[in-house]
Design a protein that fits this description.
about 20% strand; Alpha-Beta Plaits; binds iron/sulfur cluster; alpha+beta; 4 strands; two-stranded antiparallel sheet
């Protein structure tokens, strides 16, 4: 299972990028982070540390 970032909640702090063990998180042209579903291992670490609770399982 992969995780996804809600762009409406993301403030672009990039905290999630630093903790992802799969380097699955990048920044888009609007300064918001997004997750590459093909790289995400579903560990949930990013969701735990996001200050905006913008990251959740992609159900
Ligand atoms: S930690 Fe949360 S608010 Fe910060 S860049 Fe990642 S998704 Fe956005
Ligand atoms: S769930 Fe884990 S592997 Fe997937 S983007 Fe978040 S930190 Fe990276």
């Amino acid at each position: 299972m992969a995780y996804k970032i809600d762009a409406n909640k993301c403030v672009g702090c990039k905290t999630c990028m630093g903790v992802c063990p799969a380097n699955a998180i990048s920044v888009d042209n609007n300064g918001k982070c997004f997750i590459d579903k093909n790289k995400c291992m579903g560990c949930g670490t990013c969701a735990t540390i996001c200050p905006m609770s913008a990251i959740n399982p992609d159900l």
